Amino acid sequence: MFDDHEGGYEARASELEGIKVGSLFYLMGASGVGKDTLMAAARQRLQFDDSVLFAHRYITRPAAPEAENHIVLSEQEWRTRQRLGLFSLSWQSHGFRYGIGIEIDHWLQLGLNVVINGSREYLAEASRQYDLRPILVFASASTLRQRLLNRGREGGESIELRLQRAQQYDQLIHPKLMTLHNDAELETAVEQLLLLLTDSV
Which contacts (CB < 8 Å, 24+ apart) does range 183-189 have? Predict the structure, then answer.
């Protein structure tokens, strides 16, 4: 499921005509690619930069150590916010519900750049609403396999299935798609991300 604002991106562009709006960066990456760690490190580096904001996701999933710093909602809380129109983007995946709050629209109208943790499956739908700057974080199959093994959450068969799904990211098409290689040291990838967030507007 994915909910959009009435009229989509064209209507929003018309409303904001003449106003300098910020850019919306939409990060994607397969499980094990290190997207959450990368975003957390970049957010820490940019905490004193008032031109870039990282949006929290509202998710019906319990919090976990060293995982995404999201806002936990119950199923009913999520449905209530959805009904009240408090999500600019929303979807379901792997049995959980995800939402991006409408606060990002205000941030963009203030001319701020906004970073969200996106979903590959909903890239096309999100692009209908926003003039996205998608960023695909990727790593080699051997790196992904080792990270998934180190995580210790799944067995070999499940890991191989995740690696197969990761190959679907190779089929992503978007006119403004940017890529970020995360095979090396974290700091190297963080520097690349900071450049994309500050130089590609």
Answer: 183/139, 183/140, 183/143, 186/34, 186/37, 186/38, 186/41, 187/41, 189/34, 189/38, 189/137
Q: What pLDDT is attached to residue 200?
A: 54
Containing domain of residue 46, as a range?
8-199
The CATH number for 149's domain is 3.40.50.300
Could you tell me if residue 180 is inside a domain?
Answer: yes
Per the structure, the count of domains in the chain is 1
Residue of 3, 7, 21, 41 lying closest to 131 (CA atoms): 21
Strand partners, 135: 27, 178
Measured CA to CA, the distance from residue 166 to residue 35 in angstroms comes to 13
Residue 97's CB: how many other CB atoms inside 10 A? Answer: 21
What are the CA-CA distances from residue 56 to residues 15, 166, 196 (Å)?
25, 24, 20
Give how far Cα 159 sits from Cα of 37, 118, 156, 196, Å: 19, 22, 5, 30
Q: Does residue 49 form part of some domain?
A: yes
Assigned domain for 55 exists: yes
In this prediction, residue 14 carries a pLDDT of 47
Query: What is the four-CA torsion angle of 25, 31, 37, 39, rounded to 10 degrees?
Result: 10
In a domain, 129, yes or no: yes
Residue 71 banded pLDDT, cuts 50, 70, 90: very high
Please classify residue 161 by burial: count the beta carbons closer than 10 Å to its beta carbon, then call 0-12 exposed, 13-18 middle and 19+ buried. exposed
